[in-house]
Amino acid sequence: MIMELMIALTVGAAMFGTGLYGALSQTNLVMIIMGVELVLAAALVNLVAFWRYLHPEEPAAQMFVLIIMAVMAVEMTVGFGIAIARFRSRGSVEMEEASELKG
Amino acid sequence: MTVQLIFLAFFGAAAVWFGIVVFRTHSMVRSALALLFSQTAVGLMFLVMQAEFLGVLQIMMMATEMSVMAIFMVMFMMDPGGMGAMEMTHQKRLSLWSGGVGLVAAVAVIWLADWGPTVPDIPGAAEQAADLGRELLGRSMFIFQSAGLTILTAMVAATMVAIAPIEESSK
Fold first, then answer.
1. Could you count the other beta carbons within 10 Å of the beta carbon of residue B28?
2. Is B115 within 8 Å of A24 when comparing Cβ atoms?
């Protein structure tokens, strides 16, 4: 049993659970983005732990970390773009008030 | 118990604790700062795991990203200081169950799986950076370039969405 790997993956799981709770429970768009950021950070921790303790000879694992970081930046950029548009048209980024997209 | 294990557990606990604080505090600025500390603790975990380049990159990137997020928080929130203690959550029970079930399922898989033997020592920091550079500009170049193009597209799309329509800005 690789204890360091277990600890790192457990931290990743805890961050995933916290982020999922935040993304589902918050009513504000910016707070939802924060929850998604935590979930992606959990993925980062897992990837680095897998690289370090299972396949340190494989640099492609580190490349995937860079891709996840790019996804984090893209998610924030698009999220804030939508937040600005929403705030401009409705004066609020509360998702409780954004029910017009419901089918 | 190795020193690496102790530091990994310490920074891991800090990352999770600050992650929880993000959704516990009423102040949005504190939320953004807590997320910054959580992401910094993740970066420190990378350093403990001897991924120096990624650790420094994570800390630098998140410091910038969370500063921007704090500004947006103050701009968009009705009560950014949290003085009014507004309730800003919904479907709390469902969210708690989803987060809890996700956590328990992941922890069960982690602790029940057989991860194989411990690997030998890893390459040094300079060799890692060189290997990563060769990977990015060799075998994974297409994926790396796609990520760059995706960021560019997202920047253009976000700017287009965010700028005011002509009739609105001319008023």
1. 26
2. no
Domains observed in chain A = 3-93 (1.10.287.3510)
CB distance B109 to A46 below 8 Å: no
Task: For residues A50-79, give the mean pLDDT.
Answer: 91
Half-sphere exposure of B147 (CA within 13 A, CB side): 16
Statement: residue B125 has pLDDT above 70: yes
φ, ψ at B54 (rounded to 5°): -65, -35
Give burial (CB, 10 Å; 0-12/13-18/19+) of B116.
Answer: exposed
Which residues on chain B are in Cβ contact (under 8 Å) with A70? 147-148, 150-151
What residue in A sits closest to B12 (Cα-Cα)? A11
- Tell me the whole-structure pTM to 2 decimals: 0.90
Compare A97 and B33 and report the one with higher pLDDT: B33
